[in-house]
Amino acid sequence: MRLPGTFDTIPTLTGDGIRLRAPRQDDLAGLVRAFSDDRVRRFMPVPPDYTAAHAQSFIDTAPDMWRGQRAVFVLADEASDTFIGEAELLSVNELYQSAEIAFLLDAPARRLRTAVAGLRLVCRFGFEQLGLTRIEAFADFENSPVHYAGLRAGFRHEGTARGKLSGPDGQRRDAVVAAVLPEDLQSP
Ligand SMILES: CC(C)(COP(=O)(O)OP(=O)(O)OC[C@H]1O[C@@H](n2cnc3c(N)ncnc32)[C@H](O)[C@@H]1OP(=O)(O)O)[C@@H](O)C(=O)NCCC(=O)NCCS
């Protein structure tokens, strides 16, 4: 198993029209738009007033996050290299060779079947380069798109994590537990 903190630079990976790469300065406007999106604010733990300062900090501190064992990427369109989303593997657990995935697409990049390709690319990185044997996802029961996209990418639903998530109103919310193992990625 290889921990994110052992990478000298944030790696770049491409496949199925997607690029995973380090965040950079020209992603700033896209990051602000994507993290201010209603569905992202509803379903992900982001600051309610996500500003350019938050995005700048994300760009500047991404290498530190890797050193903190959190593999953070920007998702870009492979042809244009422009920002289309953000993805990360967090809670990397060396003992269990597992991690959790977080994933979002900028609204203009949704409904294009991009999510499945992006999820699979992040998971391939986790299995092939980090040596993970299990990647978990925790999603709100009402977040239908991520359930559909996750199942198509190879995740399987395993149960309920009670009170795992914090809703925008601060209330604890149950999550669907889903996970993908290396063999689940074999078939498209
Ligand atoms: C989750 C997310 C990445 C999925 O990306 P997407 O581009 O919307 O996904 P897709 O277009 O591949 O859609 C997946 C499926 O959900 C369906 N779907 C998409 N948006 C939907 C919506 N608003 N309501 C109901 N179904 C929807 C699609 O029809 C598709 O079903 P199909 O494969 O049977 O056709 C994206 O919606 C997103 O960034 N959401 C906000 C952040 C977030 O919730 N991240 C996950 C936190 S756990």
From TrEMBL:
InterPro entries on file: Acyl_CoA_acyltransferase, GNAT_dom, Ribosomal_N-acetyltransferase
Gene3D superfamilies this protein is in? Answer: 3.40.630.30
Q: Which domain of life is it from?
A: Bacteria
N-acetyltransferase domain sequence ranges: 18-183
Tell me which PANTHER family the record gives.
ACETYLTRANSFERASE (PTHR43441:SF10), RIBOSOMAL-PROTEIN-SERINE ACETYLTRANSFERASE (PTHR43441)
Q: What is this protein called?
A: RimJ/RimL family protein N-acetyltransferase
